[in-house]
Design goal:
Structural class: mainly alpha
Radius of gyration: 23 Å
Number of strands: 5
Largest sheet: 3 strands, antiparallel
Oligomer: single chain
Bound molecules: benzoyl coenzyme A
Number of helices: 12
Strand content: 5-15%
Amino acid sequence: MSAEDIVSDAAGAISADRFVEISYDDVIPNNVGLGSDKQLQRALEGWRPKYLDWWTGMGPVGFQQSEVYLRTAVGVDPAGWAKFGYVKMPTYRWGILLAPKVEGRTIPFGRHKGEPAWQEVPGEHRALLRRLIVVQGDTEPASVEQQRHLGATAPSLYDMRNLFQVNVEEGRHLWAMVYLLVKYFGKDGREEAQALLERQSGQINNPRILGAFNESTSDWLSFFMFTFFTDRDGKMQLAALAESGFDPLSRTCRFMLTEEAHHMFVGETGVQRTIEATCAAMVKAGIKDPHDVEAVRKLGVVDLPLLQRKLNFHASVTRDLFGSEISSNAAEVFGAGIKGRFNEANLKSDDHVLQEATYPVTRVVDGKLVAEEAPALRALNSRLLDDFIVDCQGGIDRWNKAVEKAGVDFKFVQPHKGFNRRIGEFGGKHISLSGDLLTEEEWSAKSGAWLPNDGDMAFIRSLMKPCHEPGQYASWIAPPRIGVNNQAGDFEYVKIA
Ligand code: BYC
């Protein structure tokens, strides 16, 4: 590949010498020296056709022969790592890319803290590590399956291209986990890699492992909320795994995080553009009250209270992905040096072993919500969830700024941590948006106003009409401020075949 083939991404032009470590001559592009490990290469080349069968069978419906303006990773330098160009999705170069090795890296936490990071799987932690890699790997194809029908109702070619970008990168993230399984876990790893292609999102007999990945993503608002909230769980979990004492996992996750940032951008700006279209239509029609739902919907835009209900749903379903607030599993993987906290290596205020430390966890005790100091080791899921909620708030604040700027009187808020939860401390309890413990009757009477109802979903479906002309956008969503890779407003992001 010549330097001329490389075009700048948002971060600016990249130079040829930064991507030399990636071999694009191999069937599977990689920077892990695949060519010199024939056994591994054969195993992965054997998995590849099965992956491609899965992609064509369970990946995006239609558009597989369309030319899509996609970015492909060509290096692992954060300052510039991708090139853009038209690609038919089945020919996308799914590669195995690890962030550069940090010489002398030590395990940053747990009982092995300070020991050299492991380059091979430590026997005593093999089962734990494999389980986490499988859970992580399972979410990647799951999300592609969940989103497979969305192309047909894309509100623009720009959005369609973003959907497919997210999809191919989730496919690459599956490759990332499969590489670890096949290289480091022998026969069991190969079997797990096969099983990752066999479970299916929403299937009764063989579903995906984690709850949220069996929900359907049947409309674009769900897609944007999913990429805002659920991909952000991906960010938090990958960041925690990037701290791992198992260095290949750490390096893999570090590079995946680079791609994940774009997925959250798609979600945040997708919701923001929806809000902008709504507010602009309201202002134009002289509608002052955002709760005048009938009048707002007549304009062909999504009323803000409905967006709040979607937010409530996706936030709560995603929070379940953090597992139980108090978890001995979480304590074990931390103690073992396998999964750290968010930003672990930079946390200055403790010893990173946490034997004596405590952390405040909201619990339900005698019919009341109380903050209890729990052993920090067992409260790690709770802490990561708290970090996630803080991380979400940044985007929600930006949504509120857009509403404010339009002069509309409405504010998006996150529901209470215990709202609509199935897993953990609040699982099976009835907790209101503001954090009151309710009886079952109270919940049944009130929850309809807090979560999307059948009428809401029917309205959203009615808006999901394709808009596939270059430069055109569906009524309910505003155009983006800048094009992908600075392309002009009427750029043909997907040449539909
Ligand atoms: N649904 O002690 P517990 C992403 C299971 S998203 C079903 O409460 P633990 C992406 C749990 O597995 C990030 N089951 O929690 C985003 C365990 O079962 P086993 C994905 C659940 O183990 C968008 C049992 O309940 N990565 O990348 O501390 C698009 C008791 O577990 C659920 C990861 O999650 C649930 N919601 O934590 C594409 C990182 N929650 O093992 C991609 C790897 C819990 O006893 N995974 N259970 O049979 C982990 O770190 C942990 O497995 C979890 C659970 C945080 C998920």
